[in-house]
């Protein structure tokens, strides 16, 4: 029973990733695309966690942690890019 529920949820997360890919390709605006990219990151993390439960291993926990940090940092970088037009902005010095 649990195995069937895990497989169904894994399939549904796969469908959600495909829908988010559609939003990235045909999104009406750049913020919609950034949110869809973040959604793919979250769904990918949960899919890896489901695979970890199905395989009954803890080997994927490091991958989940690294992917979560990278998804968070990329979302912040994209948001800053949308807001200010650049990720790294040089400041003028007062000499």
From TrEMBL:
The chain crosses the membrane at residues 6-25, 34-54, 60-82. It comes from Oceanobacillus caeni. Pfam families: MrpF_PhaF (PF04066). It comes from the Bacteria. The keyword Transport applies. This is Monovalent cation/H+ antiporter subunit F. Keywords: Antiport, Cell membrane, Ion transport, Membrane, Transmembrane, Transmembrane helix, Transport. It is a multi-pass membrane protein. The lineage of its organism: Bacteria, Bacillati, Bacillota, Bacilli, Bacillales. It is found in: Cell membrane. Belongs to the CPA3 antiporters (TC 2.A.63) subunit F family. The keyword Ion transport applies.
């Amino acid at each position: 029973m649990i195995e069937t529920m895990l497989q169904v949820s894994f399939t549904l997360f796969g469908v959600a990733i495909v829908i988010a890919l559609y939003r990235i390709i045909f999104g009406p605006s750049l913020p919609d695309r950034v949110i869809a990219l973040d959604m793919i990151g979250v769904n990918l993390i949960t899919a890896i966690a489901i695979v970890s439960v199905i395989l009954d291993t803890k080997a994927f926990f490091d991958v989940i942690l690294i992917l979560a940090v990278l998804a968070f940092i990329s979302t912040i970088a994209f948001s800053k890019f949308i807001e200010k037009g650049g990720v790294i902005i040089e400041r003028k010095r007062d000499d």
